[in-house]
Amino acid sequence: MPESSYSLYRLSLFRLALLGFLPTALFLWLFSILLFALFIWLPGDITATIFATEGDEQTISSIRIALELEKPFPQRYLAWLYAFLQGNWGKSELYGLPVKTLIAQRLPISLTLSLTSFLLASVLGTMLGVWMTKPSAVSKALAIFVQLFIALPSFLVAIALILIFAVHWQLLPTGGVSSEQSWASQVPYLLLPTLALALPQIAILARFSEAAMQEILVAPFITTARAKGLSSNRILLRQALPVAAAPILALSGLQCAFLISGTVIIESVFSLPGLGSLFLNAALARDLQLVLALAMIFATLTLLANAIAEMLAKILDPRRMVREVPPL
Asked: Which of 221, 215, 227, 295 is nearest to 261 (CA)?
């Protein structure tokens, strides 16, 4: 590649990243305002949890003043945003520990669960989608099972897995894992949650991959490849799949949002001490500092995954880069 062309290509990639991440930063800022306002304006606060059964008005009022709950919304929001951007995420009033400490304790389990589910959904979903394009009895049976899992939410899949593998066959545990255990000892406890989280996403990606592949298989270059005598497997894997990779990758980025939100329910079902269950407990207790930090982490991971997937999809499909990122 000539030096001038390489420089233009790098400039296009830089503009592509800039156009992808600037809206992400803007949305995160607007999301933080909306989330903060929602928790401020809803009735009740952390004092309702602290003094659930006892506590006089004077004591509750002094606690609210100490926690700065009486200050106006703009002042509280700007103070929180300034501290958050500096890395000061505050202290959880529910657990009595710094927010960063709680997140560091719970992060490994949630990270393992989410990444494993994402990789499983991406690989198996794409493979099943390619396989389902072949006209056979096996592909028709797979299509039926895929449609079944698309219709089932993850918590129903989790309950079914518990009944089959934990209650009936007694092969796998359903809870009791600790974040202090080694990774190898956590594997049996994370198998069922990973499957419960990944199976619906595998089905969705398989159906989408099949549709993308079917659309490409009627293209003229596929007809030419068949006329040259190439095998069906070579056509699917070497000719059609690389072209379908861009939209499949874009959908994989969108699935990150479902996987991250799904951890909240799955971790509660399987009693996993991860970020999902931590977020649910903090939201129910109205622990503002902890909820805000976790919500911003979830939103940031989701938007970054979508932005990266969209950027990679544009790189794989040069037509989209030319159309959406015009030259200077």
From this structure: 295
Distance CA 81, CA 87 (A): 10
- The count of residues in the chain is 328
Buried b (16+ CB within 10 A) or exposed e, 112-122: bbbebbbebbb
What crossing angle do the helices spanning 3-41 and 73-85 adopt, rounded to 10°?
Answer: 140
Token pair belonging to 199:
């199976």
Q: What is the residue extent of each domain of the chain?
A: 3-42+89-324
pLDDT, tens only, 79-127: 889 999 898 998 888 888 999 999 999 998 898 898 899 999 999 999 9
Give, for 81, the enclosing helix (H) or strand (E). Answer: helix 73-85
**Nearest-angstrom CA–CA distance, 148 and 197:** 15
DSSP states along 240-296: IHHHHHHHHHHHHHHHHHHHHHHHHHHHHHTT--SHHHHHHHHHHHT-HHHHHHHHH
Please, are residues 84 and 296 in contact by the beta-carbon 8 Å criterion?
Answer: yes
Torsion 303-305-306-311 (CA) sign? positive
User: What's the confidence (pLDDT) of residue 125?
Assistant: 92
The yes or no reply on domain 3-42+89-324 and CATH 2.40.30.60 is no
